[in-house]
Amino acid sequence: MNKSKKRTVKTIVFMLVFAIMIISAYFIIKTRTSPFVTESVSTMTEVEKLLAKDVPNSYPSSPREVLKLYSRISKVLYNGDLKEEQVDKLADQMLCLYDKELILNKSHEDYLIDLKVDISNYKKANRIIMNYVIEASSSVLFWDIEDENYSSIVAAYTMKEKSDYSKVFEKFTLRKDKDDKWKILGWDLSDKTEIEPGE
Fold first, then answer.
1. How far is CA 111 from CA 80, 91, 183, in A?
2. Residues linked to residue 149 through DSSP beta bridges, in sequence order
3. Domain-by-domain residue ranges, the chain?
4. pLDDT tens-digit series, residues 39-57
5. pTM, to two decimals
6. Residue (of 98, 111, 106, 101) closest to 184 by Cα position
């Protein structure tokens, strides 16, 4: 075998060994980190997931998604046994979902005081939010007034107070801000007694 053939064989063998080493290293790293990542995400509580959420930079894309996040935060705030700093952070995340007009109605401090009083009243009454259902996207109403975009959507909240159950239907009105984000402008009781739920 001449020198050039020997060199070619050596090169091929070296490349094969190098490729096997890289593939082996990839699988070792993947099997060591994947279970850890899966476990850490799956073992996070709803409170931890919400606290870790960067609402301003991963803002919900539709009125329904805004209301879904609002309802998740509400359920945790009113049902959970949270530390004060957790309540404060979740309250700030909820404020991110509010229209500037709604926020201007009271100071940040007054908002926090009212929220904590409301949470305390829920606890005293032994009241919790059991579940919520949000209307399907196809049921969302959209309209424009003076170049501003509005929408409305209904959510049904199943409440438990001691051993009694009730269902509350609320109609939320949202408005698009200058950054095209749907913000909650307000809400009121809805006259609906049934809604078509969405995914």
1. 19, 9, 17
2. 144
3. 1-32, 60-189
4. 455 688 999 999 999 999 9
5. 0.76
6. 98
